[in-house]
UniProtKB/TrEMBL annotation:
Protein name: DNA-binding beta-propeller fold protein YncE
InterPro entries tied to this protein: Quino_amine_DH_bsu, TAT_signal
Stretches for region Disordered: 27-46, 198-220
Coiled-coil positions: none
Domain of life per record: Bacteria
Secretion signal span: 1-26
Keywords carried by this UniProt record: Signal
The organism of origin for this protein: Nonomuraea solani
Amino acid sequence: MTPYTRRQALTLAGGAALLSACTAEAPRAQPPSADRHVQAPSAAPSASAAVSRSGRLFADTAAGLAVADLLTGRVRATYPGAVAEARWARIYQLDRGRLRTYQAGDGTLIDDLPAGGGQIKAVSADLVVIGPPPGPRTRTTLTLAGDGRPRTLRLAGNIEPEAFSPDGATLYVLDRLPPAAPDRYRVRACDLARGRMTALSTRDKQQVPPGQEEEMRGQGRQAVLDPVQNILYTLYTHQDAHLHTRDLAAGTDLSPGVHAFVHVLHLDQRWAYCLDLPAPFGLGPPEAHTLALAGTSLYVFDASTGRALLASTENLTISRSALLGKAPAGEAFAAAGGGHLYVAAGTRLTVADARTLAPQAARDLPGPARGLAHLPGQLLAGAADQVLRLDPATGADLSADLSAGLGAVPLPGLRALRHAETTAG
């Protein structure tokens, strides 16, 4: 599963973004520009059971969210200021008071509703919440759309939506404190039927007592959603003074010297837990940190030190740590699949064994890393203004093999490869 910045990932979760401050206001959205030809292979693709050629990728670009065809190299459409829901079936776009919903696969316009101003804060398969840009405020007005007529929700406090529960009954939010000049926040649950805010539960499903809700000052870096278990994992770096709920309940810091953690939020069961990461995680630049999820394995990598670790999502414990080698300065990305862990930062890509974390291969990219995605038989790697096709075991370039229909996909203004999937054909 591809990691995202916090705002992106939480918008995907039903409002996924990282659990930190929000991004700046998105540019005014325009209708998608469709079927712009970028590059076609010079010959018909050859058949191979090993490599998936039919598929599509989604990427953030300077022009908006781009959807490209892996077989032809065409950019099917670009959606300025748009976000996709977690399963990449729908794309939502807010444009001058209209909320438009598109089918992600073919760009079909599904719905076009009046929605007022603001920003898309969180989405699910059926719901969208729109709210004001981040900033000091003591009351927050939100618009809920997608389930009948849009309705207004007025909440006390400085509230930033994060994610919907799978049944759409609960909206997870950041409650920023103090509202008029926030310097910290806590994650809470809003009952949408009652418009009432409540605390989350602990991992053992006990209600957090008053005064012991965790208040975070950490910087949310990336998040990944497990759409099967409905659990959101968000990577944070934070200040030394940060205390978890379990620390507050115990009256002491139970994990001194910890500078980073993964916030685990169960969207179905309304509990949260923080998986502490050992030093040196959190000591380097936030952008050097990344995470990836594959099955029950959660990976975290710090490019500034070269340290990687493996944790189990079943018991939320760290089982292995290893050095993969420092990477050049730059934003870090990770992906996992097919028995491999892939990490990239700057112009360096490393392939490691997914179970042992033993390095297996490394290569230089032709430009700064811009995201990773694993598909059967190939690794997609964003680099500068293109997405390369690489051998998943060695990192060797498959993009030069145009006769096999494996040409690179040029994406001018590429910012981050977000997702890739196979399709029939």
